[in-house]
User: Fold this.
Amino acid sequence: MTIFGFLVSLHGLGIWPVRTDLALLGFFGGFYAVPLNALIQHRPAPEQKGGVIATANLLSFVGIFLAAGIYFLFATVAHLQPGQIFLAGAIMTLGATFYAVFLLPDSTAART
Assistant:
């Protein structure tokens, strides 16, 4: 996701490279979202499963709301161009990846 976020932020791309980069960004986003949702559905005890799924959905929509606010700030207050906003998003994704891998080592551990 980070790589295609960086690629779509490059200046002077034509419509087809942008479409391809955005499609691949979404495709690899699925490689993140689908296992995460499967884990959320698999790990909790049966009596807590509904509450955990509901909380995960609430947090997802709070994140979507905050992302819209951050986009608004980047576009209007910081006067960033669309490519610069994608670059900022890619940098934030890279930071979150380092956080998950190095500061939360359990995030990469395989569990059954």
Q: What stands out?
A: The chain is about 75% helix and 0% strand. The CA atoms of residues 45 and 86 lie 38 Å apart. The chain has a mean pLDDT of 91.
